[in-house]
Design a protein that fits this description.
The complex is a heterodimer of chains A (295) and B (191). Chain A has 295 residues and is an alpha/beta fold. Chain A has 13 helices and 8 strands. In chain A, α2 crosses α4. Chain B has 2 domains: 92 residues, no CATH class; 81 residues, no CATH class. The chains are: A alpha/beta (295), B mainly alpha (191).
Chain lengths: 295, 191
């Protein structure tokens, strides 16, 4: 399977391990990723707070670049949920509106680009759960994560507003993947609840409350697994402040989905760059070490 | 709930605000005031107006009361209200329009979000891709609150130890997007 790849800005900075583990996992699954040449920021959540047209033009620039890549016909794989929604929104909104496409293309003309409307943007979780599938992951598992309990955290923007590959309120697409690794599922209802997104930067008290509720519900799990760099950093970076507020002490391991899957498939913690995560506990690593002796 | 007097806004200084709000009003015109949005919102606990109340004020054309509230700025774009609205209204998108309307005014009670988003977008304009350290540094500087960076110091140190943020992140995006930004601004001023 071949995909175009849009990493997005976070995956070059604070979420480098998401980029590295996504590439390593996809390669191990036999999928080929080609980075879109010259890609730029999708606008994140900032463009929508500033300008309606910019919200569409910034992602459309990348879709136009993707259309220029040869060979054509490959889906665009996006690991970041915010990038995914921004790119996908342009596809959804221009599908029925030539006026909107013309407006976007008037702006893109200064870059010498045209967006024709022929792209298909897919979230990483969509591709892993539907194109690759849990059975294909299970076939490659060499180190079952027996005894490790995992809470799947989906967040918002890979699920909503466009319900493409999962139930937008009660998602379950990660469950067969977790089962494939041999890990246990931490049953909870917080998987599709909001982490507060950029509130953590502008209204920290609000962000801490949302993250606190998620981390509290995750108690009993050995790790929370995410599919978005924003969710990831909100859950991993402020655990001390959350502890002061909620009284729930202790660090919770927060991993990206391809890191968890990769571990079970025999990729090393070093190759998956677990050292770059902000919250991986000694307890989790010890449990992971024990899986080696069991295997 | 009564709105604080210090956030009162003089609409005479913003002639186009009323017409922009008319567009937003059209987006939520079929609202039946059921309150599903309020019941679905994860940030409602921190809002001065409930989402349902805010939409009522939008429908009544009470622009000044809407812009004086913090409610729309507390939307984290989780799209739960959009998903559940029984009238199928694009509520999160309409809130985005309210944020854009407020951003053009630089309202003092929304200063942190305003500065955060503006510095973020300015970084994209300069480099094509976001330089996290640069825009967070400018954001902290412009907030002029010496205590603010301390709340992020622990995270910042851990990020730095892992080499995740440096002062010179290479921009491989092929330079800035100045022309594109200028064109978008020209088109938006025209319409």
């Amino acid at each position: 399977m071949k995909y175009l790849y849009y990493p997005g800005c976070s995956l070059e900075g604070t979420a480098r391990e998401y980029d590295i583990s996504t590439r390593a996992f996809m390669a191990a699954m036999g999928a080929e990723l080609t980075e879109i040449e010259g890609w730029t920021c999708c606008g994140a959540s900032a463009a929508e707070a500033v300008s309606e047209l910019l919200t569409l033009v910034l992602p459309a620039r990348n879709l136009a670049l993707a259309e220029g890549m040869t060979p054509p016909g490959r889906d665009i794989l996006v690991p970041c949920s915010a990038c995914y929604l921004n790119l996908r929104r342009v596809e959804e909104k221009t599908r029925g509106s030539h006026d909107l496409k013309d407006r976007i293309n008037e702006a893109l003309a200064v870059e010498g680009l045209v967006y024709h409307g022929g792209t298909r943007t897919r979230h990483l979780l969509d591709v892993v759960s539907r194109d690759l599938g849990a059975a294909a992951v299970a076939r490659r598992v060499v180190r079952p994560l027996t005894g490790i309990r995992v809470a799947p955290y989906y967040g918002c923007q890979c699920l909503r507003p466009y319900a493409v590959f999962d139930d937008p309120e009660a998602p379950r697409s990660m469950e067969p993947l977790i089962a494939a690794t041999g890990a246990d599922l931490h049953p909870w209802t917080m998987g599709s609840k909001c982490c507060g997104a950029s509130h953590m930067n502008t209204k920290m008290e609000v962000g801490l409350k949302l993250v606190g509720a998620i981390l509290e519900a995750a108690q009993g799990a050995d790790a929370v697994v995410t599919v978005c760099p924003m969710c990831q950093i909100n859950l991993e970076a402020y655990q001390r402040q959350v502890a002061r507020q909620t009284g729930v002490a202790g660090t919770m391991t927060i991993l990206y989905l391809p890191q968890l899957l990769g571990l079970a498939m025999g990729l090393s913690p070093e190759a998956l760059r677990l050292d770059l995560n902000l919250a991986v506990t000694g307890g989790f690593l010890e449990k992971f070490r024990q899986t080696a002796t069991a295997a | 709930m009564a709105l604080a007097e210090d956030t009162a806004i003089d609409l005479s200084s913003m002639p186009e605000a009323a017409s922009a709000l008319a567009d937003i009003r059209a987006m939520v015109q079929p609202c039946i005031q059921c309150g599903t949005c309020t019941g679905s919102c994860p940030n409602e606990f921190a809002m001065d107006l409930t989402p349902r109340h805010m939409w009522r004020l939008v429908l009544l054309g009470r622009t000044e009361d809407v812009l004086a509230s913090r409610t729309f700025s507390l939307c984290s774009a989780c799209y739960m209200c959009t998903l559940r609205c029984p009238r199928g209204l694009p509520l999160t998108e309409a809130i985005g329009r309210l944020k854009q309307l407020a951003a053009r005014r630089h309202l003092s009670h929304l200063r942190s979000g305003d500065l955060f988003y503006r510095n973020f977008i300015a970084s994209v304009r300069r480099h094509g891709r976001v330089r996290e350290m640069e825009f967070m540094g400018l954001y902290f500087a412009q907030m002029m609150n010496p205590w603010l960076p301390l709340r992020y110091a622990d995270m910042g140190m851990r990020l730095m130890r892992r080499g995740k943020v440096t002062l010179q992140l290479p921009s491989r995006g092929g330079g800035g997007l100045n022309r594109l930004f200028e064109k978008v601004a020209e088109m938006e001023n025209r319409s």
